[in-house]
């Protein structure tokens, strides 16, 4: 377990749906091929950006196995198998391992609002029963609980197969404490695109990204420059993409990114309720931002 699961950019890939709400596997395969062609280091399937909260377990298994099949070992596939139910998480993680996932992303238990001891026991139970590389996903804005630096370090020290954290707390001080005190096998990945540069500057090893869904080459290059300590080059790309990184969250993710991907002709914009398409004024802001950076908007997709 000493080698990192990945270093660089992992795309939290969207789940494309047909207009009737069913999964569009043809589009999904094309998106994976695009990620591979643009040298992204890993793909996260069934994460928040993949609308995992609206997917059935059957659909999650199908997406995970399809991604593994499509990738054919050309890129790391990390399966989002976390939930607020520890046993359900164990069951889905076992299935992901059996089908050949390279690792799993485990969100903090949401809604239950466990204390730090409960969070620790949740992750330890999974790590004890499933021998696969595991990444903690700390996203308090969605789960209602923060996994403290102390708890994450405790998990890392006691669970050798927990190899990293996707830190989406937005708290650079917390990220710094994790990096400073975590064991050598445990890597920190930014969970916020806009904080990726400062996170790498203090020792993070990459990012699990939203913007790389549609800007994989540009954003991936930015991350590689930063990891290479070429921060001047990284900053140029960062500021080119800054407005888009912000607009990706102008409404609930992944509504904005799906709107962008439709404008670029990459996939359908269909979302599952309770998410709905973005407001017209935000669509116009996104269109202007895409044009200003030089993205080619499909004529038929313009609002």
Stretches where pLDDT falls below 50 for ≥5 residues? Answer: none
Approximate shape: globular
Structural class: alpha/beta
Give the terminus-to-terminus CA distance.
48 Å
β-strand number: 8
List keywords for this structure.
303 residues; alpha/beta; eight-stranded parallel β-sheet
List the helices and strands and how they pair.
Layout: E1 8-12, H1 25-37, E2 42-45, H2 57-71, E3 76-80, H3 86-98, E4 103-107, H4 116-129, E5 134-138, H5 140-143, H6 149-158, E6 162-167, H7 172-181, E7 187-190, H8 196-201, E8 206-209, H9 216-227, H10 231-247, H11 255-263, H12 280-293
Parallel strand pairs: 1-2, 1-8, 2-3, 3-4, 4-5, 5-6, 6-7
How would you describe the overall organization of this protein?
This protein has 303 residues and is of the alpha/beta class. It has one domain (8-233): Alpha-Beta Barrel (TIM Barrel). It is built from 12 helices and 8 strands. The protein has helices spanning 25-37, 57-71, 86-98, 116-129, 140-143, 149-158, 172-181, 196-201, 216-227, 231-247, 255-263, 280-293, and strands at 8-12, 42-45, 76-80, 103-107, 134-138, 162-167, 187-190, 206-209. Helix 4 packs parallel to helix 6. The longest helix is centred in the C-terminal third of the chain and has 17 residues, at 231-247. It starts with 7 loop residues before the first strand and ends in a 10-residue tail after the last helix.
Brief description of this entry?
This protein is an alpha/beta fold and 303 residues long.
């Amino acid at each position: 377990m000493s080698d990192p699961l990945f270093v660089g950019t992992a795309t939290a890939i969207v789940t494309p749906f047909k207009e009737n709400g069913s999964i569009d596997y043809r589009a999904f395969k094309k998106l994976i091929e695009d990620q591979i062609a643009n040298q992204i280091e890993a793909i996260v399937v069934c994460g928040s950006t993949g609308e995992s909260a609206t997917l059935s377990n059957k659909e999650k298994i199908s997406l995970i196995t399809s991604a593994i099949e499509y990738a054919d070992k050309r890129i790391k596939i990390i399966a989002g198998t976390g939930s607020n139910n520890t046993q359900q998480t164990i069951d889905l993680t076992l299935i992901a391992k059996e089908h050949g996932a390279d690792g799993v992303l485990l969100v903090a238990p949401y809604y239950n609002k466990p204390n730090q001891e409960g969070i620790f026991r949740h992750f330890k139970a999974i790590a004890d029963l499933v021998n696969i590389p595991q990444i903690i996903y700390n996203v308090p804005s969605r789960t209602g609980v923060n996994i403290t630096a102390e708890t994450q370090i405790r998990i890392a020290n006691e669970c050798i197969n927990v190899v990293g954290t996707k830190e989406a707390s937005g708290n650079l001080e917390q990220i710094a404490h994790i990096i400073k005190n975590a064991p050598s096998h445990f890597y920190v990945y930014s969970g916020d695109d806009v904080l990726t540069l400062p996170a790498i500057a203090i020792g993070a090893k990459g990012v699990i990204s939203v913007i790389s869904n549609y800007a994989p080459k540009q954003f991936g290059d930015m991350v590689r420059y930063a990891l290479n300590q070429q921060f001047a080059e990284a900053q140029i790309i960062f500021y080119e993409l800054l407005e888009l990184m912000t607009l990706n969250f102008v409404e609930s993710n992944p509504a904005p990114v799906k709107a962008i991907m439709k404008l670029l002709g990459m996939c359908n914009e269909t979302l599952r309720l309770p998410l709905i398409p973005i407001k017209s004024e935000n669509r116009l802001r996104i269109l202007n931002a895409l044009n200003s950076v030089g993205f080619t908007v499909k004529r038929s997709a313009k609002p």
